[in-house]
Every structure is written in structure tokens, then in C-alpha cells.
Amino acid sequence: LAARAPPPTAQRPPPPAQAAAAAAAAAPPHGNGSGSGSGSSLVRRVDGDLPPQARGFFPSFRLFNAVQSECFGTAFGSDRHLDVGAPTGSGKTGVLELALLRLLLHARQPGARAVYVAPTRALVQERADDWAARFAAAGLPFRVLALTGDGASDGNDGGGNGNGGGVGFGLVGNSAVAALARDLEAADVICTTPEKFDQVTR
Q: Are 19 and 13 in contact (CB under 8 A)?
């Protein structure tokens, strides 16, 4: 009689954590290390990946976090559109600031401007004040303008040249319209609410 092979024995699958670790070890490195939004795990450095004139804009840290490093190549190294979905506190504003610096430092057209739209006047003023102070500290000659619904100046000291300010809509008449037009023309970054941006662009 021919010997019969023993029946195959069923093997238990490894625990999920062990399987994930094995798959990660066997997989090739994800992304090409360019930080272009394709899954790169490369950590970007303020003093190594930004040009010297932009480094002073980020005085509070030396390394970009995971979300910022992942988006670095697209936000600061390209003109592609970028939509970032991440939890609160994950660094999305830093990604926006990288794109803002790219626009201002490498503008292809004279008079290029950035518009930041926030849902509340308080947030508009907070962001305008912060950017104005950081532009000035970094020696960048960019002017920040806060457009709100207040009738008086918002007290923003402006960008690197110290000439920025807040603009309200309490004044009426040709002189007020002309002043607003001059402020808009001189601004590099306009911070506003949806309602006020709609009002001045009609």
C-alpha cells in the first residue's frame, strides 16, 4: 500500500498587530521622500528646507510636524491645489503658512495677494495680528490687512513695513471708498470674513 500524506493542518492567522508590523516591514518605503503629499515620512526642518529669508517666520519650532512635512512639497514647492483634512491642532495652519510664503516670496505676477477667510471677526484679527508680527520679526516686507465689520481701525500694526492696519465699514462717502481701495492695493495678505470679502469684491 502507498503511504498516504498526512492531512494539512490549519494555521491560525497572526494577531492583527503582528500582521500589520510584518506587512509594514515587507513593504517598500512609501513615497519618494519629496514630501509632495504622496505619503512621504520625511521630516522637514525649518532651518534646512526653507530658504533663509523664510526661516524667521517660524520662530517657535525647528521641525515641521507629520502633517506639515507630508504637505511640504506641495504647499511650498509647487503651485498645485491642496486640500488638507486633519484633526484640530494637527498643524493645518502651518501648511497654509507654507503656501502663503511661497506665494509672497515666489510670486510670478506683480501684485500677487493672499486672501485668508475666517468665520469670525475675532479669528480674522487674531490671524492678522499674528502674521503681521511674524513678518516684521522675520524682516519680511509684507503688509497684512484685516477687513472686518467694525467702524474703526482694528489696531493691526501691519506687516514688515509697519504700515498695515484694520479696515472697517463704518465710514461712508467717496473718501472712505478711496481709502479702502488704497489699503487693498497696498496689502499683500488680506484677512477677512466671508461677508466682508463678498462686500468689497462686488
A: yes
Cell matching residue 178:
478711496
Q: Which residues of the chain have pLDDT under 70?
A: 1-41, 149-173
Question: How many Cβ atoms from other residues are within 10 Å of residue 100's Cβ?
Answer: 20
Q: Three-state SS string across the chain, please?
A: CCCCCCCCCCCCCCCHHHHHHHHHHHCCCCCCCCCCCCCCCCCCEHHHHCCHHHHCCCCCCCECCHHHHHHHHHHHHCCCCCCCCCCCCCCHHHHHHHHHHHHHHCCCCCCCCEEEECCCHHHHHHHHHHHHHHHHHHCCCCCEEEECCCCCCCCCCCCCCCCCEEECCCCCCHHHHHHHHHHHHHCCEEEECHHHHHHHHC
Q: Is the pTM of this model over 0.90?
A: no
User: Long-range contact list for 178-181, CB < 8 A, 24+ apart?
Assistant: none
**Residue 190's beta-bridge partner residues?**
115, 145
Question: CB under 8 Å, gap of 24 or more: what pairs does 9-15 form?
Answer: none
Largest CA distance in the chain: 110
Residues 6 or more apart whose Cβ sits within 8 Å of residue 78: 36
